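A further point concerns the way the authors explain their paired sequence and structure data. Since the whole study asks how a given chain folds, the encoding of that fold should be made plain. A single example would do more here than another paragraph of explanation. An entry of this sort, consisting of the sequence and the corresponding backbone structure tokens, reads as follows:

_____
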Amino acid sequence: MIILKIGIKVPCLVIINPKKFTMLRWTIIFIIIAVIAAIFGFGGVAEGAASIAKVIFFIFVVLFLISLIFGRKGF
């Protein structure tokens, strides 16, 4: 529950925890590595980093959809 300044209690259904975004953060890091490697002409490194970023991103999307469908049953 969140209590507003005027004294009204509002149920909080979304709690943002920065530790939960670790996989998305790694995806962004690998995309940045791929872009930098591509700029400097390291094709193999860029392809490897881009493929890792793509795999991690799709895993993140699948886990997000699973958590969205099943959700938290505690409320």
